[in-house]
Sequence to fold (430 residues):
Amino acid sequence: MGSTADIPASEAPAPPRRTADVRNYAIVTGAYWADTIADGAIRLLVLFYFYELGYSPLAVASLFLFYELFGVITNLGGGYLAARWGLKSTLLMGLGTQLAALTMLAAAPQSWLVVAYVMAAQGLSGIAKDLTKMSSKSAVKLVAGDEQGSLYKWVAILTGSKNALKGVGFFLGGLLLSLVGFQAALLMLAGLVAAALAGTLALMRGDLGKPNKKAKFGQMFSNTRAVNVLAAARIFLFASRDVWFVIAVPVFLRTELNWTFWQVGTFLAVWVIGYGIVQALAPRFIRGHGGADPDGRTATWLAFALAVFPAGIAAALLAGGDPGVVLVGGLIVFGVIFAANSAVHSYLILAYAQGDKVAMNVGFYYMANAGGRLIGTVLSGALYQLQGLQACLWASVVFVVGAGVLSLLLPATSRGGRREPGGISGAATT
Fold:
């Protein structure tokens, strides 16, 4: 009698555990998409509702301070919780917390909608978003494994779809604010998240991945050099985007170019949807040396190429170029290269992640991601209020150059995993 070892891998039936992981992964992804739409809509609703009430750019930025701060904390603690309790637990915690955040804002009397209260609700929303994101991103490696090309493709599709749907959320937020108002819109979003939570509870069987009751919190920091360097580069990369995109760009479009919040919301939605499409397609046009999967060199040249564009936009504005054409055109090109760079980072963290510490490595990495967003959000409001849009653009240049310099320290490997000059020894699967 022949053994299963004699059957070609392409013809062998999928192991039951893997089949279950694929099914559960699909459920996790659907829930993540629902939360992503709600998260994008909430951000636009809060931004424009409070700006229209007369809040300054810095005050509006402060509303998102807890959102980003608790994102840092959540990714650190969430990776540990996912390792001990499983990804299903962290997903359900995320959806439940998002439902609580939406209810806080939707059901509150008008007099409660002040900075401190909204900051608290946004803090819960940040916890929710990062718990669901970490659960879904960690689940990719359980399904794709380390197969050449497969992991890069799966990560790109998930990351791209998430950002495209966040753009849908921006559009939905602007539409609902126009049609039904702030709190009614939040109630509708709460219904979407509640449906995702109920669906996950009803449809998911078992867990996603194998919980490790022996996991220790201190292991969150026991990462390879590659993971640590990539996390540091991620801080700079996301600070370079959010330092002008989060507060400065929408406020500039609203106040200097006299766009309505509906027009701003639509533009941001289209930009983020396009950004997501580029991420999903990244494996088709962004490859490493010799057509292999991306490595540290890929992240490096993308970062330095990205730095050209905020510098070019700032220089064109200083030279008297049409602000609408310069900003919109520059932001589109910036978005394309940034999306490709982000997609490469998202692949690299899973390629570098250790098999028994995927959730911890991903949590640590997205802690850095949240840290970059926090820095960028605060500086976006402060620099715009003090010095205007150009100061935000030059800060973006500094941050993205920093990401490029750090990326020089990432592993640069060939197909066979040989060490290249300037790289760290070991292949990307360490």
